[in-house]
């Protein structure tokens, strides 16, 4: 039986550290800092950027952009970018989550993205996300953002017994997202009989001060945040599966995990950037800027201050260019035309039980390498030139590559690729590693495709400048 490649084990660690987009960005920050990347703030000037140095910044702590400036970079040179996203379909807590009915304490949630919600039933669930905490410091008050994750399973969405739903076998499960997707936290009688007592006594005060959420839930969150329940000002929390990600299958050839779409591509691009810029002299001959941009809110259209539809990427390109030459306003346009974006989002692998869902000549296989996505109606931003460039890198390194178009009688999804291609004006190819069970609470992909993706992305960062100099189109 084959041994697990280090990059695969590293991905599993990344997935297990990243139950939410906030945690994924936090883990990315940790890895970038360890690799010598310096944090920037969008609220400050970037006047001190230097060739050969590495930087990153976050926006809303759910989007992160990291870049390594080539030692031979001058203003107007291109950016070599991989874009992915940090968010996945999930159930997020409502602003008022306190639900009590039928003798149960329940937690009100809203659906985020296009999830396969029936897969969330009968799973051991918990909550994770961020909280805003009021803290007293130096005689004043400050407000701090903290990440939290309750480790143990505290929630469950139970299915209805078949005896009470006799048509489910013939008609299938019919989920009403408002009525049926309400997780159980506790029973009312047990909560009343055994009031949680903290170190300073009963937590009655939190019930009086915050009627929007169950005091029991607030106490659990406060314990993780190391604060008192009445110090919690607000939060953004979501439900998470407590089952860890794992290398699995009889031949240990798969990864079983939540959030592969799209933390898998986020991880592979981030690791490729770090490794392509970490070795001594690795940036000595680079004249461009290598960049990874991991955006929030792709699953709901990217229209937010931290989504791909925001000016976040264009702002970064502009500020980097301007920090090296602020006198020539035309250099940014020149840089964009020399730039290239790999829009990396997971792809649909051929399903053995639903083979008719794929077009006959475009059936991506697990272990088959990255998939180049094509769509004549521009749901993907790939064209012949951008596909060739990405494919050429694969051929140079004997890496497998696949193609995908959706059937003409089926709707096509989309990615951040067309959004950034049209919004920034940058050449773009849409690609992704093949997977099954996309948007389920538990997805699967192949370990070989993790290695292929990482190697492909790393080669792209290291070789794009030289390859692009040989491609002649608009001349």
UniProtKB/TrEMBL annotation:
Gene3D superfamilies: Aminopeptidase i, Domain 2, Zn peptidases
Co-factor requirement: Zn(2+)
A single GO molecular function term of this UniProt record: metal ion binding
Superkingdom, taxonomy of origin: Eukaryota
CDD domains to which the protein is assigned, alphabetical: M18_DAP (cd05658)
Cellular component GO terms, alphabetical: cytoplasm
Pfam families attached to this UniProt entry: Peptidase_M18
GO biological process, any: proteolysis
The keyword Phosphoprotein appears for this protein: no
InterPro entries: Peptidase_M18 (IPR001948), Peptidase_M18_dom2 (IPR023358)
Keyword tags: Aminopeptidase, Hydrolase, Metal-binding, Metalloprotease, Protease, Zinc
Family statement drawn from the similarity comment of this UniProt entry: Belongs to the peptidase M18 family.
NCBIfam families: PRK02813.1
Protein name, UniProt field: Aspartyl aminopeptidase
């Amino acid at each position: 039986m084959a041994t697990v490649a280090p990059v695969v084990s590293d991905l599993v660690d990344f997935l297990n550290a990243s139950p939410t987009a906030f945690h994924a960005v936090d883990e990315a920050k940790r890895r970038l800092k360890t690799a010598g990347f310096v944090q920037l703030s969008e609220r400050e000037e970037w006047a001190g950027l230097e060739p050969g140095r590495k930087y990153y910044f976050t926006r809303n702590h759910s989007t992160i952009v990291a870049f390594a400036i080539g030692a031979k970079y001058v203003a107007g040179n291109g950016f070599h970018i991989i874009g992915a996203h940090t968010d996945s379909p999930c159930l997020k807590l409502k602003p008022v989550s306190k639900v009590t009915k039928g003798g149960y304490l329940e937690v009100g949630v809203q659906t985020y993205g296009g999830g396969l919600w029936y897969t969330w039933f009968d799973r051991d669930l918990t909550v994770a996300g961020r909280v805003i905490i009021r803290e007293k410091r130096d005689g004043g008050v400050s407000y701090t953002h903290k990440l939290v994750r309750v480790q143990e399973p505290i929630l469950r969405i139970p299915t209805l017994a078949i005896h009470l739903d006799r048509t489910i076998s013939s008609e299938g499960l019919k989920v009403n997202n408002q009525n049926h997707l309400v997780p159980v936290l506790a029973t009312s009688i047990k909560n009343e009989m055994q009031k949680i007592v903290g170190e300073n006594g009963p937590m009655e005060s939190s019930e009086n001060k915050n009627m929007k959420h169950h005091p029991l839930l607030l106490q659990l969150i406060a314990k993780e945040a190391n604060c008192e329940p009445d110090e919690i000002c607000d939060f953004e929390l979501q439900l998470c599966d407590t089952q860890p990600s794992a290398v699995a299958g009889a031949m240990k050839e798969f990864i079983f995990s939540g959030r592969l779409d799209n933390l898998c591509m986020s991880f592979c691009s981030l690791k490729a950037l770090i490794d392509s810029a970490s070795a001594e002299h690795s940036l000595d001959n680079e004249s461009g800027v290598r960049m990874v941009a991991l955006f929030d809110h792709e699953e709901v259209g990217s229209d937010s201050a931290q989504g791909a539809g925001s000016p976040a990427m264009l702002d970064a390109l502009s500020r980097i260019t301007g920090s090296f030459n602020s006198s020539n306003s035309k250099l940014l346009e020149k840089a964009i035309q020399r730039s290239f974006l790999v829009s990396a989002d997971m792809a649909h692998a051929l399903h053995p039980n639903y083979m008719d869902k794929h077009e006959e000549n475009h059936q991506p296989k697990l272990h088959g390498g990255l998939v180049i996505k094509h769509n004549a109606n521009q749901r993907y931003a790939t064209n012949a030139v951008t596909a060739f460039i990405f494919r050429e890198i694969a051929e140079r390194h004997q890496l497998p590559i696949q193609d995908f178009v959706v059937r003409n009688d089926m709707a096509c999804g989309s990615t951040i690729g067309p959004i950034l291609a049209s919004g920034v004006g940058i050449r773009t190819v849409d690609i992704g590693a093949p997977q099954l069970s996309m948007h389920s609470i538990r997805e699967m992909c192949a370990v070989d495709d993790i290695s292929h993706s990482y190697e492909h992305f790393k080669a792209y960062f290291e070789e794009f400048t030289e390859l692009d100099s040989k491609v002649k189109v608009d001349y």
